Amino acid sequence: MTHLMSDVSTMATRSLRLVSRDVDAMITAVVLPVIILLMFVLVFGGAVDIGTEYINYVTPGVILLAAGFGAANTALAVERDMSSGMVDRLRSMPMTAWTVLSGHVVASLVKNLATTAIVFGVSMALGFRPEASVLEWLAAVGMILLFVGWITWLAALVGVLVRSPDAAGGFSFFVMFLPYVSSAFVPVDTLPSWLRGFAEHQPVTPVIETVRDLLSGGASATADPSGVALLAVGWCLGLGLLFAVAAGLAFRARR
Q1: pLDDT of residue 238
Q2: CA angle (131, 133, 139) in 5-degree steps
Q3: pTM of the entire structure?
Q4: What is the average pLDDT across 201-226?
Q5: Which of 146, 229, 220, 150 is nearest to 187 (CA)?
Q6: DSSP alpha helix (H) spans, the chain
């Protein structure tokens, strides 16, 4: 176990170093979520009436959108490793193969924590006032990390399967689409009936509702907070396990 943890730590450190040298990607990962937050709050917020301050409603959705965008970069990073010959060199070393992907996932968690902190800071400057206790803050951060975990494993799977950076970059469209068709920016009951069913039964909606309820100190309009939270955790753990196993098998099979 010590050897495995050492391998994961080494690969995660490598991924973070590569990110720190890609200044353009770092700026984009930070600036894009902030611009989306400013756009929805300052441009659309005045026209949206949901019975509460829109900044309090939309912040959790922007955080998950930022997390999805950060995870999409993992697909590019994994694809570069697969196509550049780096993985072939690593296979010749005495290390467990899946630690290569695990290092990318750990690095994604660290990057998304930093981005989340920045989005929180900007949203509070715009008037976001969470009422969560210390335990609720910790639970909200844990929920965000679970979401980042499963979507990063999905990104890692995509990075292993695709054969070009363009194909890996296309994953960003998918992860940015899901929060828009959820309760991230408007209540799902305002959507057309044919779209409402998808929005209510996709994994992003319960995660957003759980984070929103935790940050509001339980004052959100969620009908069954405990049930929604269990559903969100179940979605994240189930999808995380599924995509982690699939990514490991695909990584082992690809030559």
Answers
A1: 95
A2: 105
A3: 0.87
A4: 82
A5: 220
A6: 2-21, 23-38, 54-84, 86-91, 99-125, 134-161, 165-169, 171-180, 193-200, 204-215, 225-253
